[in-house]
Amino acid sequence: MLNRLSGEDSVGDAAKAIRGIPNDQPSATNRYLYYPDHLVCMPNPKRGIFSNLYTLLSEPIFSGVLSKLFAETWVAERSSNTRDESVGSFISRRYGAPVADNLVSALYHGIYAGDIYNLSARTLMPRFWYLEKRDTADGHGINIELLELITKSRSLLSFDTVRLMNRMIKDDSGNKESFAFLQRQMSKTSIYSFVRGLGQLNDFLLDYLKSNANVTLRPNTKVEKLEFDSSNRKFSVSTSSQPSSSKEFDYTICTLSPAVLAQFLQPSEYADTTKSVPSTSLISSLENGCPKSVNVMVVNLYYQNPNLPIPRGFGYLIPRSVPVEQNPERALGVIFASETTGPRGPKDAFVEIIDLPKQQKEGEEDPELDPDLVRRLMEQGTKQRIQVGQDTASGTKLAVMIGGHWWSGWKEEDLPDEQTAIEMAKSVIQRHLKVTEEPMLAKARLQREAIPQYQVGYRDAMARIHQNLVKDYEGRIKVLGPWWQGGVGVNDCVKSARETSRRIREAWDDQTGLEDYVGEEKWVLVDRRTNVQVLDPLQVR
Question: Keyword Flavoprotein: yes or no (predicted)?
Fold first, then answer.
């Protein structure tokens, strides 16, 4: 995969495309929450036991947390009839409302821009959901279950994760060097991107697809009609570029929302009566099972001053419990973007892998190279390789995220425009970080319906859609992407895409991409010492 994405033949060249931040860097170790009126660095091993203990005992955000953690063992299990509940309800019940409102809500602001009292615990916290009732005989709580796994050197992984890992090893067995390289890189990396940003992933994929003779790309072409003929199990697709004709295909892959898919499948009054018509059950499951989404305003600020009074780290998140006077803009969090792009590189160069003598020479001649990086690399030896970061100018970059679930129900005209959003972001930075300088550059962009919200009952809703898709379209419609997979990350999308291509290649028409939502979750115990994998014998029946 790395070779394909890099457009090069060797694993060494593939490294040029990936920009990883090592696990020991501040952006990997230092994560902050803002509460109630200042930044709080979250405990981590690098800070040491005494510093972490002081933070836990002195910061208001952790008030009562330790006692609730110890008391979790004696909390009663949920009812066996409970199919799902919100993240906020689950955490409040097991660990107390302060943990939910002060800590967990901030995390879900950063990932989903969502309200923990609407998001599904079973979908977004599946391991915790499972562990609560894993051992019903003893019923000794989630924390004890986790402690037992750690002491026995075991990992508890979902069945689909283990299945994917085993398939990847098998599929990539002919390219062991590439797979081993990927494992080494990711084991040392906390954050990764590409040299020109994540958009470079799209560029690589687009170039690769264009090079395949059996791939036809039709950008900016509106699909007018999608119909299925059950007699030959083929789809006919009519597009805006060909109003008088259509083409036939064996499969349809949908990455749009369930509600949009329902619109495409709804027959018009001019529909071909010889084609199959979707059942009312399918249309209803798509329309009623569609998760809502939220709008997020992302404001990027660039300051010429590289030494602003900002702590080293990834950034900070803002919990729902912060007083409104400390966050009237309803910001979700701030990313210290200068920390996540790596050391700056020489002018007009995205990346270069060079030996240290050359690096030392360039470091002496080019003042834009990070001198600390040069010195650190020189201390490591004479044959190290360097990946250069994205930035080519000194300064400080910040990204402010505003809105999300706080704007749910707002009309379009109520949302802030670009200039208003920039002023809001500057106010957040001034109040929280005491930065009074004006940014040299500022850009705001409203990401409309950017992040699906996996509400309570999401899993059962997806199971119903799967069953109806198989019944009405014989498994010829596959779905993937954030709307369907219960995850919004790039990794989730890559995983879904890989599995979808396998389903089509193998003609697994009983699978739509939602089949794992049917029935109870399966869990696998993996022995970290021997890598022996067994289905968890205690899993809920």
Answer: yes
Can you spell out the DSSP letters for 189-240? EEEEEETT-THHHHHHHHHHHHT-TT----TT--EEEEEEETTTTEEEEEET
To which residue do tokens 């309803």 refer? 330
Return d(Cα 396, Cα 303) in angstroms, integer: 5
Per-residue pLDDT at 134 exceeds 60: yes
State the amino acid at position 436 in one-letter form: T
Residues in the chain: 541
Q: Mean pLDDT, to the nearest integer, of 449-456?
A: 96
Structure tokens at 219: 């950008």
Rounded Cα distance, 494 and 502, in Å? 13
Assign 328 a pLDDT band (cuts: 50, 70, 90): very high
Cis status, amide bond into 45, omega within 30 of 0: no
From residue 516, how far is each of 87, 159, 194, 462, 465 by CA, in Å? Answer: 21, 9, 31, 9, 12
Helices (H), 34-175: 49-58, 65-71, 87-95, 97-98, 105-112, 121-124, 126-132, 142-151, 159-171
For residue 88, give the nearest of 61, 42, 125 by alpha carbon.
125
Helix, strand, coil shares of the chain, percent, nearest 5, are 45, 20, 40
Ranges 133-142, 182-191, 349-358: which has the least confidence: 349-358
Residue 7: pLDDT over 50: no
How far apart are the C-alpha atoms of 186 and 17, rounded to whole Å?
Answer: 14
| Separation in Å, CA 31 to CA 26, 113, 326 | 8, 17, 19
- Contact, 296 vs 451, CB < 8 A? yes
- For the whole model, what pTM was predicted? 0.87
What does pLDDT average to over the chain? Answer: 85
Task: Name which of 482, 484, 461, 486 is nearest 87 in CA terms.
Answer: 486
Max CA distance (Å), the chain: 75
pLDDT digits (tens, 9 = 90+) for 243-298: 555 788 999 999 999 999 999 898 765 556 667 789 999 999 999 988 899 999 99
Rounded Cα–Cα distance for residues 79 and 133 (Å) = 10
Q: Which long-range contacts (CB under 8 A, 24 or more apart) does 521-525 make?
A: 521/126, 521/130, 521/158, 521/159, 522/158, 522/159, 522/160, 523/130, 523/156, 523/157, 523/158, 523/159, 524/156, 524/157, 524/158, 524/159, 524/161, 524/162, 525/154, 525/155, 525/156
The CA distance from 309 to 123, in Å, is: 39
Residue 289: which residues within 8 A CB-CB, separation 6 or more?
258, 458, 461, 462, 464, 465
DSSP at 86: B
